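Intended use. Records like the one below are meant for learning the mapping from a protein sequence to its folded structure. Do not use them to infer anything beyond what is encoded.
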Amino acid sequence: MWRRLFDDAVPHWRLVALLVIPTALVALAAAAAARRAAMAVMHRLLNTTLTSSTPLVRAPLRLIGLATFALVFLILAFPAFEAVDLHPRFGIHLKTLSVWTFGSGLRVLLIAVVAFALVRAVAVSVKRFEHDINFGTDLDALERAKRARTLGNVLMNITTVIVLLIATLMILREFQVDISPALTGAGIVGVALGFGAQTLVRDFIGGFFLILENQIRVGDVAAINGTGGMVEAINLRTTVLRDEEGTVHVIPNGAITTLANKSLHFSFYVINLPLAYSEDTDAAVTVLQAIAGAMQAEDAYGPFILAPLEVIGVDAFEENAVRVRVRIKTAPQKQWFVGRELRRRIHQTLRGRGIEMWSPQRTVSLPPKS
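Structure written out for the chain above:
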């Protein structure tokens, strides 16, 4: 058996064991490292909390570990025999391995180090970006942190995929693997995506800048392309709105042409109050300011009113009324809560003080019959 494996000397089984066992340990260590690297890549690409005990994950990891072990063991075993003056009849010779190690092997190592450094540099930059954005403890700070994490995950995933793809192709070339078919296939896929997935790419780009520029946030009330509702989700491809009837509208981000955010930072509730021409507008405005001031002093409405009632002035002369426009500044999405109560109190107070608002009533006088 030994003569079939070796050219001349017949080694002792103890010497063979002393060579095989360390080689097997090194191969096991390489297999474990490959499994951990594969698990990390799966976590990064799938963005989930998969564990190595999951059946869908365990089988690929086991295959990667076995393949790595076999490859490393076969590469190192035969040069190890040659190191003790044993010459196997087949396998990779020590001289060939040495030449490759100090040639292509160093380039492979350099490629791996540069790829790892690029991924880590992007990760550090993303973390720094999230830290700079996430200042304060208010609701806006939480929204900024969520937006920064979303963009950070997108940048990390894109960078990791691109760097790993390029590094893999460069390493395969160092192993004398023809990568021309892979490059050709990538070019064909790129052309196909350019022609067939223009809308998808446009949606992703639109969603990226939608999140980057903080145009809307989850929980905002907005009107997109004339459709109003509360924003339930902002994804890279779509934005989800739910209107007041409960209908869900899914809008591709690339198709957004008009966007009106009704709850960004603060809101205004505007009232166009019709007064009869016989009423004193200054006196009516004083009453409105007193009503709004009383609401602002109450615990139920005060926290949501950000400024005293603003009187814009007489806005229009109509056929039967003078329009007085006022508005009140409120917290986001609280304009309707405050405005409805303000309208109710205005109606009750003006009626109680005898201040007449415009009413579509007409007096018709008929001439007496002759």
